[in-house]
Amino acid sequence: MMKATMMLKAGEEEFFWANQHPQPYLFPDSPGGTSYERYECYKAPEWCLDHWHPSEKAMYPDYFAKREQWKKLRVQSWDREVQQLQIETPADGPKSEALPPARKEGDLPPLWWQFVTRPRERPM
Fold first, then answer.
1. Longest dimension (CA), the chain
2. Residues 6+ apart with CB under 8 A from 29
3. Per-residue pLDDT tens for 24-61?
4. What is the distance between the alpha carbons of residues 33 and 37, in angstroms, rounded to a whole number?
5. What's the rounded Cα separation, in Å, for the pair 106 and 104?
6. Could you tell me which of 3, 58, 71, 89 has the fewest CB atoms within 10 Å of its CB?
7. How many other CB atoms are found less than 10 A from the CB of residue 81?
8. Integer distance in angstroms from the first to the last C-alpha of the chain?
9. Rounded to whole angstroms, how far apart are CA atoms 63 and 121?
10. What is the pLDDT of residues 62-91, one digit of tens each?
11. pLDDT at position 121, please?
């Protein structure tokens, strides 16, 4: 067992350090890359889509049709969501940032809108 451990250690040493390229390639999105964690600044808030010109919206008809349905559903469900939050929040304040789940089949969880409309994690 001791010999196997020593051979493994020597192999790791050779693989990781002795044969490493002097100037390794770093992918732009990986740690140390030129665009690591920079995509956060390109995320536009959701309300910016309200100001798109109709010709721009016409390029994505499916998304904007679904978005209009979401907006109507948000207006309809807002009072129930706030009421649920008020009922389930303790008197001394929330214990964590976790939101409560939907309580009935077919209902929406509180503040669902921010998850449905969030932008991509990484731009393509």
1. 71
2. 35, 36, 39, 122
3. 888 888 888 888 888 777 777 888 899 999 999 999 99
4. 9
5. 6
6. 3
7. 20
8. 48
9. 18
10. 999 999 999 999 899 888 888 888 888 888
11. 66
Whole-prediction pTM: 0.57
Q: Which two tokens stand for residue 87?
A: 């009922």
* CB-based contact 100:88 (threshold 8 Å): yes
Tokens for 46, please give them: 């959701």
Total residues found in the chain within this entry: 124
